[in-house]
């Protein structure tokens, strides 16, 4: 059970960057939406411009995959936000000759 908050104009709500450890982890399933945060300095590296496609929202396909530039379909069904971030970072870094770090956001 959660708490309902009545917010008024001017109220500020801070949302934590990470979920507390005692909350269940959300996982990706077919139909779920995800996009990635890609550091702007990475997008100006020659050849890495296609990573901007990761910032667009995409749905997890029926087969549990998402499309990752330079890599192709990547299976993400059942993975948490942090697991997806690590997996996509690793797969892209294997293809590019530059350090890469991306962060998933589940929508």
Features:
single chain, 107 residues, alpha+beta, 3-stranded antiparallel β-sheet, 2 helices, 18% helix, elongated, disordered N terminus
How many strand segments?
5
The total of helices stands at 2
Query: What percentage of the residues does DSSP assign to strands (E)?
Result: 15-25%
- Average pLDDT confidence is 81
CA(first)-CA(last) distance: 21 Å
Structural class designation? alpha+beta
Cα gyration radius (Å) = 16 Å
Tertiary shape: elongated
Order of helices and strands: EHEEEHE
Compile the SSE list and pairings.
Layout: E1 33-37, H1 40-43, E2 58-59, E3 65-68, E4 72-75, H2 81-95, E5 103-106
Please describe what this structure looks like.
It is a single chain. With 107 residues, the chain is α+β, with helices and mostly antiparallel strands. 18% of the residues lie in helices and 18% in strands. The protein is built from two helices and five strands.
Summarize the structure.
It contains two helices and five strands, in the order E-H-E-E-E-H-E. It has 107 residues and is an alpha+beta fold. The two termini are 21 Å apart.
